[in-house]
Amino acid sequence: MTEPLKIADRSYDSRLIMGTGGAPSLEILREALITSGTRLTTVAMRRVGTGTRGSILELLTELGIEILPNTAGCLTAGDAVLTARLAREALGNSWVKLEVIADERTLLPDPIELLDAARTLVDDGFTVLPYTNDDPVLARKLEDVGCAAVMPLGSPIGSGLGIRNPHNIELIVEAAGVPVILDAGIGSASDAALAMELGCAGVLLASAVTRAQRPALMAAAMRDAVAAGYASREAGRIPRRRFALASSPSRDESPAF
Amino acid sequence: MNPITVLVNGEAQQIPAERKLSEVVDAHTASRSGVAVAVDGEVVPRALWPEHALAEGARIEILTAVQGG
């Protein structure tokens, strides 16, 4: 029933994009990834010897899940561009989830650095998927410089606060000619379903699953919520009314007691 | 030739002046797969590591993919 998610020249039969951060172990991550049905998954780039090196790539290769490197932790356009280029060299992959954050406390995107980095990377041949504020103007400008999708936050990374400004997400969706992926802030399945009902093409989440008490069970909930939200949007919901509208035939056809 | 000091992932290290980038990378990581290197803020493609000479104070960053995002 669900149409594939199309980004640039690729298509995915899941509209849930998973991040791999925050999982307590690779085994738990593995189970969650499989259950989620995700076809595209983010990784970060870090100095060798500082993380669980190698193993995450082996796991994703084994599971046949495409890798989307990110530029997490970068505070300037220059750092993000260099990180994206290193990821391309390391992974042979010119797709990037572009993150340029303003500070460590909020992890909110720095819009000026983000747009600058997006322009540079698009010109350098990258397929750029920017993590952005829920700002319709910035989203439009990111599309204008050639980004393949826009990925507005629902609320700050890892906060689980859901979608704080659904109206802005709707405005972004209405104006966008590229897929809109709700990225960051998802806490529970209803948040993911709402994102899809607002018209998002997909949902990207990590912490909501990897830091849940039972990650694989939450992965199943998110998988189903994204599919249900998409179907609900496609089905065309009934208009909201102020008063009731009976679903049974009128009284005229009722028996006369 | 006198040894030179370079920064490898932020740590100062003395190396012979004639040492090439590929040797520095191999000394730092067991596997080259999934690894990328920048020197002084520019990516050095893998194929160029064996000839890439290093200058005093060179900043070498050796990165790989980890869980994240």
Structure description:
The complex is a heterodimer of chains A (257) and B (69). Chain A has a single domain (11-253), classed as Aldolase class I (TIM Barrel). In chain A, 39% of the residues lie in helices and 16% in strands. Chain A contains nine helices and ten strands. Chain A has helices at residues 26-36, 55-63, 77-91, 111-123, 136-144, 166-175, 189-197, 207-210, 215-235, and strands spanning 5-7, 10-12, 16-19, 40-47, 66-69, 95-98, 127-132, 151-152, 181-183, 202-205. Chain B is mainly β and 69 residues long. Chain B has one domain (4-64): Ubiquitin-like (UB roll). Chain B contains one helix and five strands. Chain B is globular. The chains are: A alpha/beta (257), B mainly beta (69). At the A-B interface, strand 4, strand 5 and helix 3 of A face strand 3, strand 4 and strand 5 of B.
What's this, in brief?
Chain A is 39% helix and 16% strand. Chain A has helices at 26-36, 55-63, 77-91, 111-123, 136-144, 166-175, 189-197, 207-210, 215-235; strands spanning 5-7, 10-12, 16-19, 40-47, 66-69, 95-98, 127-132, 151-152, 181-183, 202-205.
